[in-house]
Amino acid sequence: MSLRYAKSEQQLARACATIPLGAQTFSKSITQFPYGVSPYFAARAKGSRIWDADSNEYIDYINALASITLGYADPEINAAVTAQLAEGTIFSLSHPLESDVAELICELVPGAEMVRFGKNGSDATAGAIRIARAFTGRDHVLTCGYHGWQDWYIGTTARNKGVPAATQALTHSFPYNDLPALERLLRDFEGAVAVVIIEPMNVAEPAPGYLQALIDLAHRAGALVVFDETITGFRLANGGAQELFGVRPDLTTLGKGMANGFPLSAVCGRRDVMMEMEEVFFSFTMGGETLSLAAAKACMQKLKREPVVKTLRQRGDRIVEGVNKLIQKHDVRAFLGISGHPSWSFLNFNDCDGTSAWEIKTLWLQEVLRRGILCIGTHNLSYAHTEADVDRLLEVYDEVFALLRDAVRNRAMTQYLECQPLRPLFRVR
């Protein structure tokens, strides 16, 4: 048992008796955090900091899988939620907060004319696919990116156990920034494609004109376009990637940072398409839960009032620039790179000289966690991250990149690793 993570490991053993993998989310489990060198349970969080069950303190660059945009326990969000808690959480009738938040989304998101709420991003993407199928009278879905756990999408991945073959056969993946691949699929399933759903940006930036060309191709084929902005919404710009890149999809899905970590998601888009929701069954007992709506209202008002997105961009630019300089300094370009938007950047690990990318990533995790950085390969920034937080991240990377270089160059990974290497869950992006 690890002394540093003793309580986490004890709690993991307890959890595994009643919870598969000991966690509710794959990304918080032993599939992502190597056993023996990782924390598994949080005790509390504030601002940009999180403390694990063993009272180890970290600067958090995961931020609850990019759900925290403003920072943990933001005082304005907490005040709004506390005030609403005194009035009630869920009711036998709808609550005006539903309209308050829907109106804010329509104000901020260019493609939003009507809104319906869910709880997870998967709720929203599944709802968008259902109404797109209803609107077009077609069944096939073309997808690019990660869109949640529901059958219609996860059947296209290696984690497709339990998904009927008939369902898998209706969804087809295409690579990002590859218009010919999309054209081929639209041709192969001519007259049958209901919708093209895409993360408008993740690891790579869209090629000039790519997103509008994708929309045009889909529309010519009679299909709708959904932007899955579960992460990019309220992060790349207040109105998401569609605002940043000046394009407008038919439907948009939102989640994560829209309520600064409170459970809320949304489907929004063209009025004529969204009106399918009057017939299509998309209904949740907790769909109008008011604590999350109060959090979302306060969050979006703060986004309008303060330079949240601008600050995320500035801090992120420093990280991207600093990481690139350190990659050059330590000559680790053969197995390490950085990409993505500055507010949501990705470290990219590659196989090198007989050492696998997963071994390299595991050693990186082991060492950054030891030094008080909580990260799983992406820098999901929040408004609470300070310049000093960025300084510390780059100091840690300066030390760890040198160690990675030596381990790979000397083919000595087993001497450095204090745990078993991670294995891939499935390729997300």
Question: What can you tell me about this protein's structure?
Answer:
The protein has 429 residues and is α/β, with parallel strands linked by helices. It has 2 domains: 6-61 and 308-416, Aspartate Aminotransferase, domain 1, CATH 3.90.1150; 75-305, Aspartate Aminotransferase, domain 2 (3-Layer(aba) Sandwich), CATH 3.40.640.10. Helix content is 41%, strand content 15%. The chain contains 16 helices and 14 strands. It has a 7-stranded mixed sheet, sandwiched between helices. Strands 1-2-3-13 form a 4-stranded mixed sheet. A 3-stranded antiparallel sheet has the order 11-12-14. A hairpin with a 2-residue loop joins strand 11 and strand 12. Helix 4 (97-108) packs parallel to helix 12 (290-305), helix 8 (179-188) runs parallel beside helix 9 and helix 13 (308-330) packs parallel to helix 15. It is globular. The two termini are 34 Å apart. The mean pLDDT is 96.
Please outline the helices and strands.
Elements: H1 6-16, E1 42-46, E2 49-52, E3 57-60, H2 63-66, H3 75-87, H4 97-108, E4 114-118, H5 121-136, E5 140-144, H6 151-154, H7 165-168, E6 171-173, H8 179-188, E7 193-198, H9 210-220, E8 224-229, H10 240-245, E9 251-254, E10 265-269, H11 271-274, H12 290-305, H13 308-330, E11 336-341, E12 344-349, H14 357-370, E13 373-374, E14 378-380, H15 387-409, H16 413-416
Parallel strand pairs: 3-13, 5-6, 5-7, 7-8, 8-9
Antiparallel strand pairs: 1-2, 2-3, 4-10, 9-10, 11-12, 12-14
- Average pLDDT, rounded to a whole number, is 96
Q: What amount of the residues lies in strands?
A: 5-15%
N-to-C CA distance: 34 Å
> What is the total domain count?
2
The amount of helix comes to 40-55%
Number of helices: 16
Strand segment tally: 14
Computed over alpha carbons, the radius of gyration is: 22 Å
**Superfamily (CATH H level) name of the largest domain:** Type I PLP-dependent aspartate aminotransferase-like (Major domain)
CATH class of the largest domain: Alpha Beta
Q: Helix-strand pattern, N to C?
A: HEEEHHHEHEHHEHEHEHEEHHHEEHEEHH
Q: Runs with pLDDT <50, length 5+?
A: none
Shape: globular
Q: Largest sheet, order of strands side by side?
A: 4-10-9-8-7-5-6
Structural class: alpha/beta
Stated plainly, the CATH topology of the largest domain is called Aspartate Aminotransferase, domain 2
* Biggest pleated sheet: 7 strands, mixed
CATH architecture of the largest domain: 3-Layer(aba) Sandwich
